[in-house]
Structure prediction request, 343 residues.
Amino acid sequence: MEQRTEIADLGEFGLIEHLTKNAEIQNASTILGVGDDAAVIDHFGKQTVVTTDLLLEGIHFDLMYTPLKHLGYKAVVVNLSDIYAMNAIPTQITMSIGISNRFSVEALNEFYEGVYFACEKYGVDLIGGDTSSSLKGFVISVTAIGEVAPDQFVKRSTARKGDLICVSGDVGGAYLGLTLMEREKKIYQENPNIQPDLEDESYIVGKLLKPEARKDIIEFFASNQIVPTAMMDVSDGISSEVLHICKQSNLGARVYEEKLPIADASRKAAFKFGLDPTVCALNGGEDYELIFTIAQEDHDKIVLNEEISVIGYITDLEEGVKLLTKGGNQYDLKAQGWNAFNS
Ligand code: ADP
Ligand code: MG
Prediction:
């Protein structure tokens, strides 16, 4: 039988020591990490970016189909994505957890394996956190800290008329992965003897369970002297994010359906589930791609990167925020999910 160590056997301080003893420092800016009342960071003349996220079991994740290692990885990555979305480089995180006695030390080891894996991959230091018991669900709160050269951070509110709207990677996959997992969960609950077959769906399942933050895009900007005029990460779907940028910049936009980057695997899955891939791309969430606007002069630099798609452009406020369909129709982009523009 698999070993099960009760958290109570270690106690709170024993558990913290156990979970953090192998934390490695990778950044010169980390002056003091885990083990004191607070960590100390010195960004040596750069500006500091901070973001925090709360993840609740049953609201943001379902442990029935989310392996703890993936959950630890994703909890870190979604926060790093917010730092990159500011055109900054993440350097430190803190990790706070609320756990019930349903969890063993071995289960937390798995979760932290994912946490450390993400820290190593993205070059960030785990410098602290908090540990508490929780009555029932697993609670995760991550804070990420990053650095940016003075005044090089990019906000949502600074897009300009005529700017091109760009998206990294592809969108809609995570939503399709979620749809698949929810379906499989239902089938399993009705008949536990049926084993799910996820082999063919590894792309969308990966998009949901093991998303990556677009570090590569921020590095591409830096090495090509591109500073986007506005940027955010795609956590709620393209529609919602374009509306955010337009609202905060006081402008309108035109987005072309045919330009939306959708992976073949996502298209196939959408058709299998009877969903419209465009609706998944616009209104699905959790893709953690970057959406940004650039000056038209930067177009020639952007096309060098195959991971970036131009999906539209910024217009005057009066022109509204519009989707131009493949059939030549025009709809208002709405952030309210399904059937928003079905005709
Ligand atoms: P305090 O009483 O000041 O809250 P703690 O005993 O909770 O201190 O934490 C001791 C040290 O361990 C601190 O550096 C804290 O940031 C760190 N820490 C606590 N829980 C975690 C955790 N789950 N993951 C990483 N670091 C943690
Ligand atoms: Mg504490």
Summary: The pocket of adenosine-5'-diphosphate (ligand 1) is lined by residues 16, 19-20, 34-37, 95, 97, 126, 128-131 (CB under 6 Å). The chain has a mean pLDDT of 94.
